[in-house]
Predict the 3D structure of the following.
Amino acid sequence: MTDLFEGATGIIDEALTYASVSEDTVERLKHPQSALAVSIPVRMDDGSLRTFRGYRVRYNDARGPAKGGIRFHPDVTIEEVQTLAFWMTIKCAVVDIPYGGGKGGVTVQPKDLSMAELERLSRGFIDGIADAIGPDIDIPAPDVYTNAMIMGWMMDEYAIIKRAKTPAVITGKPLSLGGSLGRDTATADGGFFITQTLAPKILGDASGPRTAAVQGFGNAGMTMAELLHDAGWTVVAVSDSKGGIHAPEGLHIPSVAKVKRESRALRGVYCEGSVCETVDHKVITNEELLALDVDLLVPAALENAITEDNAADVKARMIVELANGPITPEADEALYQRGITVIPDVLANAGGVTVSYFEWVQNRQGYAWTAQQVRDRLQDRMVEQAMGVWERSGGGHNMSLRVTAYALALERIGAAVDATGHKETFQGR
Ligand code: NAD
């Protein structure tokens, strides 16, 4: 395994300086428990057969069944899936939900598939990994370029294989199939609750509206931009894979979101119809967005957006990592040295997995919560865990919030590992 995974696990050594954890725990966390690679033959609409590669990694399940999304993307590799599964292990521990970490992915450009081909691919992937998942084993969910509809197909396929309705096998499902209210916005909701809790501490008192830029205008980024806008932030720039738009006096996010939802493209949003007249804007690149002078930067696209090459250009005072791994370890260190506070992915985007956990609980209870119950419970947990990390880090002065979150997670995972016996137990001490 190369850089991504090594970079991701490299932080363990630093976090161990601040955490009291057994050797057994460290040893267990260096390696994934299982990594399954499958070939998925799919009948295409033109009659031909194409084979796709898919992966499911269960990184560690000391604290409970593994939990983690399924990504459909052309760049998916086993290394990426393994790294994401490691992050899920840490993330579930950071927000103290009773899960280990897993992740899945299929190497595919889903935009090139018809709806029927996408369904056959989704069902084929579940056929391949069915023995490795289950409500008490490993529970998938949506991730990049997968959504509730795909989770519905996957749950249905699992039910066909097992000849039993098993809604708790997968989360992020449509409401009609046992999904939870609030799941679709949960990642952004969680990031927003944490932002609202920590922004006054990090940025100090505001003399006017605070400014924000959001990279990635998908499930997580678009909702986060909407929440910030509704709460009075001035969102000056947003972007997607095709590029971004920038307006120093602020974008009218509800209009941008409406057009993006309808057209699925961000560039040009401001050049058609009424939105065009709302405010002047200019088209910017993703690189330019990351370098804007804003209070808050929200990377909400993919990994490695901020690297050692562009970290010095970042002018934001606070970064909330809604994406997984958007900042490389080298860049993270450079930002910390410059006093830029990063709220790490394992905390900032844990709202999604937290409401996934709520969905699993509701499925097992056979009882659906109201939207308000979900939101209140999410807010309570996010604020409590964010404050725990903030205080333990000494407001980011003693150590970064990332190292603090990892230290906390390692201790929680370590407690579960050690509860089943550790070195001293077997030495009879
Ligand atoms: P999504 O597919 O809905 O959206 C991704 C967005 O990023 C799209 O707008 C896409 O155009 C944009 N994008 C892709 N490449 C880009 C680039 N190079 N520059 C700028 N934008 C680019 O995915 P999502 O569910 O919003 O996930 C985004 C990130 O959040 C991922 O890192 C994912 O792992 C993480 N995340 C998502 C959830 C969730 O519940 N959806 C939970 C936790 C973490």
